[in-house]
Amino acid sequence: MANHKSALKRISQSERRRKRNQHIRSKMRTVVKRYREALEAGNATQAGEAFKVVEREIRRAASRGVIPKRRADRSVGRLAKRLNAIS
Predict the structure, then answer these.
(1) How many other β-carbons are positioned within 10 Å of the β-carbon of residue 47?
(2) Tell me: domain 5-86, CATH 1.10.357.10, correct?
(3) pLDDT digits (tens, 9 = 90+) for 8-51
C-alpha cells in the first residue's frame, strides 16, 4: 500500500481516470452495437442517424485519449463504408 501523500493522490487520480475511461468506452461500444443492429436490419435511414451518433462518440473518445486518434479514424471509415454499401 502507498505510504506517501503523493502516491495516495496518484492512486485516487488513476482510479478516477479509469472510471471515466471505462464509461466513455462502454458508451462508445453500445452506440456501435446499435448501429450494427440497424445495418443488419437493412434500415438505411435508421443506420444513417445511428452513424452520426457513432461518429460523434468515437471522435469524442479519441479526443479524450481513451482510444488513439488513428484508431478512431479507421473505425469511422470502416463503419461509413458499411453504411455506403447498403445505401
Answers:
(1) 23
(2) no
(3) 999 999 999 999 999 999 999 999 999 999 999 998 999 999 99
Cα–chain center distance at 24 = 6
The cell for 57 is: 462518440
Ranges of each domain in the chain: 5-86
- C-alpha grid cell, residue 52: 452520426
Residues 45, 40: Cα–Cα separation, whole Å? 13
Look at the block and give the residue holding cell 469524442.
60
Q: What pTM was computed for the model? A: 0.88
Residue 8 has a pLDDT of: 93
**Cβ contact 56:31 at 8 Å:** no
Question: Taking the CA of residue 87 as centre, how many other CA atoms within 13 Å lie in the half-sphere pointing to its CB?
Answer: 12
